[in-house]
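Following the same procedure, backbone shapes were mapped to integers, yielding the entry below.
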Amino acid sequence: MRSARSVAAAVKWRLIKRKLPFIKNLKDFEKSGVKFNVNNAIEHLRVVGHGGETEYTSAMLQNLRPNDILFDVGANVGMVALHAASICRTIAFEPDPLIRRRLEANAALNPDRTLEIEGIAISDSDGVVDLYTDGDAGNSPSLVHQRGERGRVSVSSRSIDSIIDEGTLPRPTVIKLDIEGAEILALRGATRLLASSNRPRALFIEVHNTFLPGFGSTAEEVLELLKGHGYTRTEYSAQRDDQMHLILSTS
């Protein structure tokens, strides 16, 4: 027999599905609200449910300063990026074409804030890579086949060091990484930036213990790499299932 809680959840979801699609003016992180499209169950989780990361999202936004330049790597539908864009200059990286389309649509709903969107995958080198994806109604995409993803698309990849050397984008003062285990590649591709005297003042990083082995790495390697670059002060730390949410700084 199903519990009263599960029955109530099922009834609630049936009521929500009847309303899809709809536009949500989310006021959970700022009084004026940010508008998001909600077209399916996954977008409902990512928007209304904050992707299950309410506390972490709040901590990231509270850490930002008006003079910051944020690289949001793995921006998805823009939960952090669109809120951050009202605080500081924000550049959102989202390589998945279908998810990026949702991000662009959400940005268009909020013309009061400027969000720069880059459709490239951040990795350890420049080139073309395979991105495994279930589209905008599935799990977040990955640069390795992690969860039986049904689709695959070729996308351009860049390293952060290469982007900075090119000079077309500004040097970030804060970097957010949420890229399903590829955080190790992004960090390897930012070696010169992280070792420089004007490295980012803070890193918002989601460390995927389960997905990192797919990249031949571990959470321990990620943490040692960060420590080696001087990111030893923990501003925020929380565990969510197999993921570690961190805000790190050098002082």
In short: The first helix runs from residue 4 to 19. DSSP finds nine helices and twelve strands in the chain. Residues 25 and 138 are 23 Å apart (CA to CA). The radius of gyration is 18 Å.
